Amino acid sequence: MEKLYAGRARIDVTPTKLPIMVNGQFEERWFDEIGDPLSVRAFVFRQGDEKIMLAVVDTCMMSGTFIDAAKAKIQKATGISEDRILISATHCHSAPSVEAILGTGVDEEYAAFLSGKIVEAAQKASENFAEIEAGFGQGEDPKNVFCRRFIMKPGTAWTVNPEFTGSPGDIAQMNPFGIEKNVVCSTDVADPWVRILALRTPDGVPYALLGNYSTHYAEEKAISADYFGVFCDRMAKGLNAPEGFTAIMSNGTSGDCNSIDFLGNPKREFGKISVGESVAEAALKAYPQIEFDPAPRLAMIEEKLTLGIRQPTADQLRQAEAYLADRGIDSVKGLKDYNDAYAWESVVLSKLPSTREVKIQVLRVGDTAIVALPMEVYTATGREIRFMSPFPHTIVISLANGCNGYMPTEESFRLGGYTTWRARTSCLEPLAERKVRKLVYGMLDRLAAEG
Length: 451
Ligand SMILES: [Zn+2]
Known about the structure:
binds zinc ion
């Protein structure tokens, strides 16, 4: 078996101009304080003629257009083919906005800066290759990930004008703050596993590590890499790794999960430090059991998939337009509540193409498969993919190579609730999740069959 080589890089992308616009919530926020640095963290793998890059960026989300532009530059600068590059967002909610979400705009200057830095990370990771061994480990941290969607007692779930959200009736609610007494049960069980793909040099020295955990984010007080950054620092220390060791924490299937224990202790205090350290502790506990493959097989497949976009009916669009006109709203700045926001989104969606092409990637490093999806993925999707995967270990990364909103399961649409409400944050057709899984199963099988 051919030897595997890897390069690694960590490039600082902390903004220098403050205050700066931050996305992740309904409205834009301006942060004027740096809590901790933001980074682009990247690996470039090389085996024979094959070169594959994996990068994770401390940002909420990046569009396919934004990422594709960076990939084109990377291909030019490093020779890594665009379809061999995986770029994902941690989905921290405490970084400058490079993607307009609901009522948030884009900081164009920062976006251009970030794009250049992603290319710089690719160049740096391509400069120094070391022979590596790879192995998979998993630790459990059930303390910091909970399903955040709940079936509510009849008539108590939060609802917005169904003509604007397209919801058939809201039975489920996300984050039932203060009305926990109305909860019947959560819609799923959370995935408590911290998965790690560890890379070390043949003499056994930790070289780099890819982590994956499925909680949404932990705090959003200042510009920060959130628990993802804390995890990376803690792993370097905990492994007593030499200078240059690069840990990456990727976002798993956090579309329906967060760190709030609504059913057990909703007032539980947590933050980036407590979550990051706890998740790292679980990974460090698992590390000694990792079996390293001295010559892991490297391969990757990228496929394009066309998905339908949910759009308002002609009548729903007329209602939304009339509602906004009646309230004198002609820009995002005028949006005051959720009815306004979803009426606005109905109009925005009506102007978008009715289908969209998305990129799906599957790669393998030894017996670990990595599935990269350009959506906010639910726990159930990750569970199904792992169940069907021919690989002993499968990691699912959300918000990779683009952002196409939440990808609820077909069943979730019948329960309604925020993550299913029709908006740019949730616009894919109800069968999207099923279509994506079907494609991924085939891709995983092909990668496994290559041996
Ligand atoms: Zn989010």
